[in-house]
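Residues determine shape. Take a concrete instance:
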Amino acid sequence: MVLELTAAGSAALPAAQPEIDRFNGELRALLGDRGFARTASALGRLAHWAP
């Protein structure tokens, strides 16, 4: 399944970027660089998984 943003969602994404960056920073602090990279990789694989 692929979820796509509407035009309005795409336009709003830049405004959300500071919060996304804050979340990623907190997650990186919690997991460490290696744990963050492994988690991001796993989420990427799940995003493209075809059962």
Q: What stands out?
A: The first helix runs from residue 7 to 47. The helical segments are 7-47. The chain has a mean pLDDT of 92.
